[in-house]
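[09:14] KT: can someone run the structure on this one? pasting the chain below
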Amino acid sequence: MKYGIVLFPSKEIQDAVNSYRKRYDTNYALIAPHVTIKSAFFATDEEIKPIVQELHKIAEDTQPIKLNIQKVSSFSPVNKVIYLKIEPTKQLLDLHSKLHSGILDEKPEYSFVPHITVGQNLSEDEHSDVLGSLKMRNFEHEETVDRFHLLYQLENGTWTVYDTFLLGKECN
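[09:31] RB: done, structure tokens below
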């Protein structure tokens, strides 16, 4: 099965992002707005059990994380993805590192750039217009996230929560 690990921002941020995603993100219906901490990986039913145990340990050793949304940006020209840039704090970078070591050891495909996707798979002109328009808006926001989520992908492509891990707390 295909899994991934994410942080979900507050409902306030999700609602704001979804107001754009429903028009500009082809994955709008597949997953809620999120910050990917560990990209999609495959594990069998047997392999996921020790991974879940490791995730509980990581969560216990990690304090709640501040998400500081700074501005709208884009991965263009590599990818025509428009996103809300999140400050790569030490806490966020440490969590990302922990989720790519030990039993979860796997080199990420891309450098870690914390973000929340707003739009993707746009034409060149649409990407340019949307990015220009969104850059004129103020998206600065700060909040604290106290959990991360292990998601799995269903056959229809949607992602759903497999387990939730409270940061800094034992979750048994």
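[09:33] KT: thanks! The longest strand covers residues 65-74.
[09:34] RB: yep, looked fine to me
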